[in-house]
Design goal:
Length: about 55
Amino acid sequence: MSGCNLNEKQIKAAIHADAYSYDPPIDLKQRIDAQLAWQENKEVIPMKKFGTKKS
């Protein structure tokens, strides 16, 4: 690799461009969207603070 002088930004840009050229299967996207929607709708239950009783 003596003739290859790429810096980190160029490598990241190349990987980013390559990654966006692939389309995931539709069912995978639907499963991810459903999981995200479920997590957003899930009720957040606050934890009670643990307190010690003073004698």
